[in-house]
Specification:
Length: about 325
């Protein structure tokens, strides 16, 4: 794998979900070298911190992840000469843990009851007790270098659309840290004044949906790891989200599997969520152009292919 291979991912039309004269397109971020969109995120964070002199090779980089970000950081950190420690909630897939360790990083598992917020708290505590030892907490959730990384992807999407002579009507994207959604949406809204952006949250943990609909928010466990951490981060720019919709975790897994069989694109479960909402829009409108994103590869979830995380079945 080469750092220069990050980005410039294929932009494809999805024939099987283009209904009622609508056309659906996706940016295939799962084809980045480590198998996920997080390669873009961490390459930008690490490179920009190097440019500003805040970090340098030989230091230890620390962050929190359910797995895809951890693998991206572990690979990029090794390539650039850093040690890496990933704080991760218990119960994540063995494939992602194996990948992270294969790049020489250390995983510190945190209690499942605390999910991602617990991993963040443990990482911050670790950093606070090692102030003079060359350790840097990247904090992808709150670090706006995360969002800025996705401006580049937004520009790639605009170039691809112009090459096809297509003007997008909708941008549809699930929200985790919010960096991916917000960074792309910022560019698309600047270029296309009439585009409508649709953010997606998992119904079991949908803080923005609750806020906009005057509902009491409660974080509950779910099986769309990477979404639904239960908090709104600094990278989630609410003003860039025209509409927020929710999806069911098991339905997203089922749709992913059917899509893989139909389109032969090996995308992960959160991509199933994006597909479901694209289909909702395609059923309600005609002759519209819809753009979405495929975040990560399905092979990272083979050990949980039934979509079941038993560690979280009793955690609320």
């Amino acid at each position: 794998m080469n750092l220069l291979d990050i980005g410039n991912t294929p932009f494809v039309e999805l024939a099987t979900i283009s209904l009622n004269g609508n056309r659906v397109f996706s940016k295939c971020e799962f084809l980045n070298p480590s198998g996920s969109h997080k390669d873009r995120t961490y390459l930008n964070i690490v490179s920009e911190l190097e440019r500003s002199g805040e970090i340098e090779p030989g230091m230890i980089l620390v962050d929190c992840s359910t797995g895809n970000g951890g693998a991206a950081l572990a690979w990029i950190g090794r390539a650039k000469g850093y040690g890496v420690k990933i704080f991760m909630p218990e119960g994540m897939t063995e494939e992602r843990k194996t990948q992270i360790r294969s790049f020489g990083a250390q995983i510190i598992e945190t209690p499942k009851e605390e999910f991602l917020s617990g991993a963040v708290a443990r990482a911050k505590s670790y950093r606070a007790t090692n102030l003079s030892s060359g350790i840097y907490f990247l904090d992808q959730s709150e670090n706006i270098l995360n969002r800025e990384a996705w401006n580049i992807c937004g520009k790639e999407i605009v170039a691809a659309l112009k090459g096809l002579d297509v003007v997008p009507d909708f941008f549809v994207c699930s929200i985790g840290t919010g960096g991916t959604f917000s960074g792309i949406a910022e560019i698309l809204k600047r270029e296309y004044k009439n585009i409508k952006t649709v953010g997606i949250e998992v119904d079991s943990s949908a803080p923005l949906y609750a806020k906009r609909n005057d509902l009491v928010f409660k974080h509950c466990s779910h099986n769309l790891m990477g979404l639904g951490a239960g908090v709104l981060s600094a990278n989630t720019v609410s003003a860039l989200i025209d509409e927020i919709r929710v999806v069911d975790g098991p339905a997203s897994w089922a749709r992913m599997k059917r899509f893989i069989a139909e389109e032969r694109l090996a995308v992960g479960p959160t991509c199933g969520a994006n597909i479901l909402i694209c289909e909702e829009i395609a059923a309600a409108f005609s002759n519209k152009n819809i753009v979405t994103l495929f975040f990560y590869s399905s092979w990272k979830y083979k050990s949980r292919w039934d979509g079941n995380y038993p560690e979280y079945s009793e955690v609320q």
